[in-house]
């Protein structure tokens, strides 16, 4: 699930483009102060890395990661501080752009403080790495 899609144009800017592997497509949020992406996994996973590629000028200065197991409340896992660039950004434990290894079945990434004046966020690639349990 995603918080919004630009002009409700799901075909051109929908959530499916986060994972399609194409450099030509993207998820483009609509305007707003806080945008988010929620991922539900069919079974528990241990998340260890996050890969994200924004469009420069439409990135987030702060990404808050929350997660939980089925039936539980979301809890804050990490805060990430991406760069405002089009480059792929990869999180590794013990680095500034850090994800703590966590077992979960639901992951929510909240994009706060967008670099775009209107609060839009554009993501070309989102990857969550880890292991299935």
From TrEMBL:
Q: Which SUPFAM superfamilies match?
A: Galactose-binding domain-like
Residue limits of the F5/8 type C domain? 1-53
Q: Which UniProt keywords apply?
A: Nucleus
Where mainly found?
nucleus
What is the protein's name according to its record?
A: Nuclear receptor 2C2-associated protein
Q: Where in the cell is it found?
A: Nucleus
The source's superkingdom equals Eukaryota
> What family is reported?
Belongs to the NR2C2AP family.
Supply one GO CC term from the record: nucleus
């Amino acid at each position: 699930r995603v918080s919004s899609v630009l002009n409700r144009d799901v075909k051109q800017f929908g959530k499916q483009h986060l994972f399609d592997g194409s450099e030509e497509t993207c998820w483009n949020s609509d305007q707003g102060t806080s945008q988010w992406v929620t991922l539900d996994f069919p079974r528990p996973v241990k998340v260890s890395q996050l890969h994200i590629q924004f469009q420069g000028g439409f990135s987030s200065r702060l990404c808050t990661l929350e997660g939980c197991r089925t039936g539980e409340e979301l809890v804050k896992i990490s805060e990430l501080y991406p760069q405002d660039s089009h480059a792929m950004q990869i999180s590794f434990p013990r680095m500034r752009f850090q994800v703590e290894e966590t077992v979960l079945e639901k992951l929510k990434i909240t994009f706060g403080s967008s670099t775009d004046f209107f609060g839009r966020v554009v993501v070309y690639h989102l990857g969550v790495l880890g292991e299935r349990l």
